[in-house]
Amino acid sequence: MRSDFDIAAIQAFVAIVDEGSMAGAARRLGLTRSAMGKALARLEARLDVRLLNRTTRRITVTDEGLRFHESCTRILADLAEAEASVRREQDKPMGTLRLALPEAYGRLRVLPVVQDYLRTWPELKAEISFTDRVIDMTEEGYDLAVRIGDVASDPRLLTRVIDRFHTVICASPEYLSRYGTPDAPEDLADRARLSFGKRGTTIDWRLRTQAGRDITLPGSARFVFDSAEAIRDAAVAGLGIAYLPDFLVQPALTSGQLVRLLPDVITQQIAVHLVYPDRRHLPARSRAFIDLMVNRNKTG
Questions:
Q1: Per residue in 114-144, pLDDT tens?
Q2: CA 69, 70, 76, 80 torsion: positive or negative?
């Protein structure tokens, strides 16, 4: 093995694993998919080991790749911190941090971090907008935003994956006693589904069987809400079947208010991104919050 350190290839590999796709990693690093593929091939040839299994539809990480990704992530973080410690101004966080957060995730996962942030820096203030709308950060003057799912490419913004969660299909015992328990994904098509939607549009339910068969249930549903928490409450009340993030429904599942359905079906894994303006000198208040958010998700 050569002793030179191919940082670009390592960064490409880490981005592919973090983003879950070659295209997402290319957008994150501002490179072409071809360049990403060449960097990965160069790294695998250098190590003489396969790090990723690639098909036309998906990318999976090998056991060797998982171990290497963990080490590389730590090394890149240490390098970034070493560079930042030399280059950043020794200023304290000042002013007001303006955040845009999605409703449910923001209240349950981000607000505790904001509380710690303000306790650590008591001279700071925070303004928070809870909205599932994709705001224009530059035009509306936000320092940071949290966005769930795919993030549209914007050269003015930087994105960082800070969390991942799975979705859960669930319903109340009352609903199931009245209408029966579905045995297969197709059984959901004619049930009272509780869907998330905005202004007449709804989100499809995407599922995969253990045999690898993909199933998409159109977003049309009997009940459409613009709040994930409202969907959870409606499911608990017995109005229908919900498809929600695990962090939102876990307490109700534990208490028995909701029952998980179709446990053999593979549901979506969704990435959570921290988004912030691409500035040469990021405000210290933003840097402090980013560090706190990333560390909280690493340890929590």
A1: 999 999 999 899 999 998 777 888 788 899 9
A2: positive
Residue in the structure block whose two tokens are 């790749």: 65
In the predicted structure, residue 285 carries a pLDDT above the cut 80: yes
Contacts of 97 (CB under 8 A, 6+ apart): 117, 124, 125, 126, 127, 143, 144, 285, 286, 289
List of E strands, the chain: 52-54, 59-61, 96-101, 125-130, 144-148, 157-171, 193-198, 201-202, 205-208, 214-217, 223-225, 241-245, 259-260, 269-277
**Per mean pLDDT, which range of 21-35, 68-82, 208-222 is the poorest?**
208-222
Task: Answer whether 149's CB lies under 8 Å from 271's CB.
Answer: yes
Continuous H helices in 61-141: 63-87, 103-105, 111-120, 137-140
DSSP 85: H
Task: Say which residue the tokens 């410690």 belong to.
Answer: 85
Q: How far is CA 250 from CA 116, 167, 258, 259, 265, in A?
A: 24, 11, 9, 10, 18
Q: What is the bridge-based pairing of β-strands 269-277 and 144-148?
A: antiparallel
Q: What is the distance between the alpha carbons of residues 189 and 235, in angstroms, rounded to a whole number? A: 17
CB 102, CB 198: distance < 8 Å? no
pLDDT, mean of residues 22-35: 89
Angle at 199 between CA 196 and CA 205, to 5 degrees: 30
| Separation of alpha carbons 205 and 109, rounded Å | 24
